[in-house]
Design a protein that fits this description.
The protein has five helices and no strands.
């Protein structure tokens, strides 16, 4: 669960770092610096979620955990695409909630 939520937040940041999506979501153009920051934050969050997935807890194997992360990555990409298509103004809020919930879920062992 935490992998999906963190990937959702990451893909959202990457999408919001694009001119068109940023304007659709916020109603105004973003500065080049702000868009670059969003894209970098998204990629760093994806790497962080992969790092968390590669450190399995309990009896899980790292290869299975990374495979599950890949599935979560793909599902999150589809979910962000749907959110940016049908509810672009809500995507920043959803990304923030996903980030907090993903970190909380990881702390709780999900």
């Amino acid at each position: 669960m935490s992998a999906f939520l963190l990937c959702f937040a990451a893909w959202s940041a990457i999408a919001l770092g694009m001119d068109r999506h940023h304007e659709d979501a916020t109603g105004h153009e973003g500065t080049a610096h702000r868009l670059q920051q969003l894209r970098c934050a998204g990629w760093l969050l994806l790497l962080f979620s992969l790092w968390l997935a590669a450190r399995p807890t309990g009896d899980a194997l790292a290869s299975l955990a990374v495979t599950a992360w890949t599935v979560a990555l793909s599902m999150a990409a589809v979910a962000v695409t749907a959110a940016m298509t049908w509810q672009p103004r809500r995507t920043p809020l959803l990304a923030g909630v996903a980030l907090v919930a993903g970190l909380a879920a990881r702390a709780g062992g999900w």
